[in-house]
Amino acid sequence: MSEPIKWVKKDPAKENVFWPTEEMKKQAWVADESIYAEAKADPVKFWAQHAEELHWFKRWDKDYEFAPLAYKWFIGGKINLSYNSLDRHIEVGNGDKVALIWEPEPTDEEPLKITYSQLHTLVSKFANVLKSLGVKKGDRVGIYLPMIPEAVVAMQACARIGAPHSVVFSAFSPDSLRDRLIDAGAKVLITADGYYRRGKQINLKKNADAGVEGTGVEKVVVVKRLDGSAPMTPGRDLWYHELMEGASEDCPAEELDAEDLSFLLYTSGTTGKPKGIMHTTGGYAVQSYLTAKWNFDLHEGDIFWCTADVGWITGHTYINYGPLMNGVTSVIFEGSPDFPDYGRFWSIIEKHKVTQLYTAPTAIRMFIKWGDEWPAKYDLSSLRLLGTVGEPINVDAWLWYFERIGGGRCPIIDTWWQTETGANMVNSLPGIGPFIPTVAGRPFPGVIADILDSGGTPVKPGDGGYITIFSPFPPALTRGIYGDMERFKNQYFSDYGPERYFTSDGARKDEMGNIRITGRVDDVMNVAGHRLATAEVESALAQNDKVSEVAVVSRPHELKGEVPVAFVLLKAGITPSEEIRKELMGTVTKVIGPTGRPDEIIFVEDVPKTRSGKIMRRVLKALVRNEPIGDITTLQNPDSVDHLKEVVGYKGE
Ligand code: WT7
Known about the structure:
Elements: E1 8-10, E2 18-20, H1 22-27, H2 34-41, H3 43-51, E3 62-65, E4 72-75, E5 78-79, H4 81-91, E6 98-103, E7 112-115, H5 116-132, E8 141-144, H6 149-161, E9 165-167, H7 174-184, E10 188-192, E11 194-197, E12 200-203, H8 204-212, E13 219-223, E14 237-239, H9 240-245, E15 256-257, E16 261-267, E17 275-280, H10 282-295, E18 303-306, H11 313-325, E19 329-333, H12 344-352, E20 356-359, H13 361-370, H14 373-376, E21 385-389, H15 395-405, E22 412-415, E23 449-452, E24 465-470, E25 480-481, H16 485-492, E26 500-509, E27 515-520, E28 524-527, E29 530-533, H17 534-542, E30 547-557, E31 561-570, H18 578-591, E32 600-603, H19 617-625, H20 639-648
Parallel strand pairs: 6-19, 8-9, 8-10, 9-16, 10-13, 13-14, 18-19, 18-20, 20-21, 21-22, 31-32
Antiparallel strand pairs: 1-2, 3-4, 5-15, 6-7, 11-12, 16-17, 17-25, 23-24, 24-26, 26-27, 28-29, 30-31
Helix pairs in contact: 2-3, 4-5, 4-6, 4-11, 5-6, 7-8, 10-11, 13-15, 19-20
The protein binds 5'-O-[(S)-butoxy(hydroxy)phosphoryl]adenosine.
């Protein structure tokens, strides 16, 4: 056997700093440092140049236009995401290439391979189904689907006819689904009867039924994933396979305006109410396409696996649109990494010869816990590049991923971005590097970002500040919060004005401009890579009528990064018990879903409050983290802190 090519080399001068090798530089789309300076000198020109790589029905008249809260890209251009994902490849004779590999959870079920031509047919048919249900350009369509190919079919079909989709994560509760459907004003929902999770059948239809109640949804399309025995409401519910049978395969992609809404995706803000992040068509297409291509070094024949769920922005951009616009094969996995055993991920990589793996630090920490023997059993030599996303990665997890999974060959691309940014924003490029544990890298070419102090002045290398994005904004940046532009303005453009987008993330940079993200500076937690507001968990718990007051703070967690901890004051006369704890956990599951469940519920008799009656969450946070509590002289009830120290077993002083 020949020596494997070493793709990554260690910097002899510095520990844990890695650089691409000559081979990697040769094959990467960009390997010359000068790309950064060039793009920075004229970011608008940079994006416009790369926009030319996509298919436009009509070229745009103007590249970029800025007005407060109304910046625009590719003005006057006509484009379609689905056309760029499907038709473009078929036209050049690539219709027989595999677009999707679906790995079902049950190991006795065969994986499914869908070519670009087949996907094109499915998407066109389903687009016609949507039309027959009265869906028109601009109508929002709810999607509540598990990790099955129909999720991509549904999203692509919406994109094809210009009906913005609003995907809701399938593990979200009926209440969460309902709120999102109402806010988006959806009249059609696409769901499934269920799916497999750790060997069990999960009944999704039941949640969908509960979730559509009280909404404006008139038609529910149900994909049959299980045995099809789910009860159907006559006049409202329709089987996907029955509708598809009679549908025409002819559905030309709608010529959409570059600034037309392509989708809404709800994400947590600092309040209890999630916000519907709006994304465009043209700008989103260009940045999704280019970041997927350059960051993951996508080439013909690649088998790209992003392990996120389609319900998150990572799944939207790097399972669906990004890889498909690049004409590579995208893997969709229905199940969970520990079923039927801890080797599942590695068996999938071996079986399908995955070339790039894109996953989250939480998953990596779990793999480390499960033991090196699991990945060691499988042939992972097809891997050429690794990606990480969603939360800061720790040094140990980075090095383990690099050595045990990447065999020291594969660069790790640590991508920082947000639901709001639509696509990657900060990361090292595979052909340029450097690859440094815990450091994401430099802003992607054409992204103008810096670390500012609270007054808006860039900080010196090494100092902490807030990572901020400058106009000309990257083309995929959100254009607003659906139905709430006031909140949009307050959240992102009040700190530094309309030309600087406030990200809510803390960060620092080194002399070279490499950025380390230190985490959220607002009350948004990052739980196992999932975004969650403390206020959401609080308002969920407050719905239980035994609760008098509640405060939720985050606490670091070895595996999940962060977890919510809830302080609960019960109503007079109610004694804390294990039963009530369970009931409260149930309330959170019902309102948010399992992702919102607190790691711990602490029953207390009092919580620290300011003189004006506001709960001092800063104090609670210090208590659960064993950090210095700081000044509490302005509290209305300083005694409460002593009581709480006892309750939580505070070891901070
Ligand atoms: C928040 C956005 C972007 C897709 C997944 C999450 C954190 C994201 C990184 C990273 C450190 C990261 C930030 C950000 N985050 N990527 N590579 N290193 N932190 O999207 O749910 O909108 O969450 O995730 O705190 O603000 P999201």
